[in-house]
Design a protein that fits this description.
1 helix, mainly beta, three-stranded antiparallel beta sheet, elongated, 69 residues
């Protein structure tokens, strides 16, 4: 799988109220982010002597929590 492009990236701290934003960033040391990624895939399956291949594009929606440092 290869990520072709990032369709959307949002710093979720901007959506928090000021108290939660302070706690997340300074106490918990996390910075949540929301990402939408578009990727291409190639799939090949061998089953009982038959080979099946497929390729296409898929959309991923991911929330990541990374260090606020």
């Amino acid at each position: 799988m290869t990520v072709d492009r990032v369709l959307e990236a949002v710093d979720m701290l901007n959506n928090f109220n000021p108290v939660l934003r302070f706690l997340a960033k300074n106490i918990l040391r996390i910075k949540p982010g929301y990402y939408r990624l578009l990727s291409n895939f190639e799939l090949e399956v061998n089953h009982e002597g038959h080979t099946y291949s497929e390729n296409g594009t898929t959309l991923h929606e991911v929330v990541l929590f990374k260090s606020a440092e």
